[in-house]
Queue: 2 jobs
Job 1
Amino acid sequence: MSQLWQIEDKTSGATRQTDVRREEILANPGFGKFFTDSMVTADWDAENGWHDAQLLPYGPLVLDPATNFMHYGQAIFEGLKAYLHENGTIKTFRPFENARRFERSARRLAMAEVPEELFVASIEKLVERDQYWVPSGRERSLYLRPFLISTEIGLGVRPANAYKYILIASPAGAYFSGGVNPVSVWISDDYVRAAPGGTGEAKCAGNYAASLLAQAEATAHGCDQVVWLDAVDRQRIEEMGGMNLYFVYGAGDSARIMTPRLSGSLLPGITRDSLLTVAADLGIGVTEGEITVDELKSGCESGEISEVFACGTAAVITPVGTVKSRLAGSFEVSGGKTGSVTLALRDALLDIQSGSVPDRHNWMHALVG
Ligand SMILES: *Cc1c(COP(=O)(O)O)cnc(C)c1O
């Protein structure tokens, strides 16, 4: 446990959700709809650095209307999960990776960086207090949402001189309610998510705001998700919505997987990174490379590309079954079905996260028990 940061517990006497209501919520939590009893906050200013780290009852913030982030968008976030293992311990997956990415995102948006130890200590504190909110079951977890906003009051445009770090938590069932069914994707050629030199590598709120219209366009074309192309040539496939992509070449013993190389405009997913290792463990060859829309289409048609899947913390691994685009038309992947390599990788990752196999890579970090 991190000793460096004392997080003061200010929840004594606060009311908690009743056991009955909590069990009701945990029976069908959905995603991001319900929140636990508590939250952690900490403040930064130039004079005091990080201070006032505290555990508080979950509740509204009171903010001045001239609070800087509401106007100029200095806002970043992270997403990770806590899992209840069969022996009663609660663990999280590679939290220091999230902490380091959070620091890099802060740097890119000229914000104060939250120290790794404070980030992890806040998770330990909140999950210990709200441990009864971690649902049991392999596909279920407590989703943790750390975020950072600028809190300087005023409309001057410059890096703010004050920031607030907040951690909230939300019980999560399976992300896609229909189970592991392939999604259909729309390749966006008119909107881009991120350009070289932009903020694509940072997990910032603005990237999501900028993606919503393209996602709406995907929906209008009857697709579940949007796929992004590189901003320069609009040829190379980068990501799907808020998830990274993998392409499976060949099948059976000779199957290998490829994921787009981190180009500066892709978000470096921790699930993406973990799968490079998990695939190698399973004897599946892995490479980082590039693929254009035309190569995807001809690969799917010739059978060279046997499966495509997306990966990220929230939805773990999601197969792609149908691709639609303006220029290359519509085509199927894997005959629109979930492929065996996709399922094997999904199972292998869930086995580690749910504690049903030994944690060979030391990825799990104990929070409670
Ligand atoms: C968060 C995110 C991912 C996935 O990252 P994980 O660390 O695997 O959850 C991928 N793409 C985008 C755009 C994201 O915001």
Job 2
Amino acid sequence: MHPNFSQSSLLISLILFLLSHHFPCSLCLDDFHYSNCTSPLEFECGHELGNIEYPFWVYGHQAEYCGHPLFKLYCEGGEHAIIEIKSRKYKVLYINPESQILQIVTMDVLPKEHIVCPQSPLMDSTPFNYTPYVEMAAVTLTNCSIDDHPGAYHFSCTMNNRLHEAYLATNLSVAKELRSRCKYGVIISKFPVLLPELEGLLNGSSYDVEEVLREGFEVQWTADNAICKECVRSGGTCGYDTTSNKSCCLCRDKPYPNKCSSMYPSAFLFSSFLCWFF
Ligand SMILES: *[C@@H]1O[C@H](CO)[C@@H](O)[C@H](O)[C@H]1NC(C)=O
Ligand SMILES: *[C@@H]1O[C@H](CO)[C@@H](O)[C@H](O)[C@H]1NC(C)=O
Ligand SMILES: *[C@@H]1O[C@H](CO)[C@@H](O)[C@H](O)[C@H]1NC(C)=O
Ligand SMILES: *[C@@H]1O[C@H](CO)[C@@H](O)[C@H](O)[C@H]1NC(C)=O
Ligand SMILES: *[C@@H]1O[C@H](CO)[C@@H](O)[C@H](O)[C@H]1NC(C)=O
């Protein structure tokens, strides 16, 4: 047989073979950043949090380039899914990727014999903003007890190993008035609670303040949404470049700053060929 003919028929059969078996080849070909971050991750930690997508990533289960560093989640003690915001820990109760809403609660108020007196969360200069579903209440900590006061709801909490009488107040003026009734008092001025929970206290359908606190509050996040959408449209998945500290687009061939290269499909076939050949 003519050597040229056998070579080209070999080539043709290889191409036919490749076209019918492109699946294994795409595995040997995809950039590991892309393949590491596109495998779906169902996150369960005490409760089900659904499929984790960018900007979130789960420490210990995913590479850090799969998500934004400010959206790192981890599982503590097998029961609390944690996100840290300005170095404070919050338990994640719920993630809604469509509306980009996160329901979180400060670790202080989670079930214990006595809850720790809660601090105001710090959300300034973070990607997180309170939703309209959140109402700012105030908390007064005192060491004397106060008779029933309209717009204030009593609970107890510990601070510096001391038990305090605490009052969740519907607004700052109520909190200040309570403070004025005791020798000692501290006001935590901005304490976020869910509006329906607060309404439940106000209209008397709920009495358990600790339960209201444990429902936490909602924040909406922003994280390079426009760039990320463009990346996904180009066939990539959003990621984070840990050397330049910027979000990037992870594509089948390699990571790009914004979106995948449209040149790639031809490069893909060619390298598929090489990949099978060698
Ligand atoms: C990412 O992929 C590389 C190469 O396939 C692998 O060695 C590594 O363990 C993966 N990392 C994670 C966190 O899955
Ligand atoms: C609490 O009240 C007592 C007197 O009722 C007072 O001596 C004490 O300093 C107050 N403050 C604290 C932080 O305990
Ligand atoms: C604060 O709340 C109390 C009790 O709910 C209410 O009577 C009062 O009008 C409120 N004050 C302000 C300034 O909103
Ligand atoms: C009290 O408020 C809650 C939350 O808004 C609402 O679901 C509930 O129906 C209200 N109950 C009464 C008795 O008005
Ligand atoms: C990226 O962040 C890391 C850790 O915060 C820092 O050490 C590094 O210098 C940063 N790199 C750039 C290019 O900003």
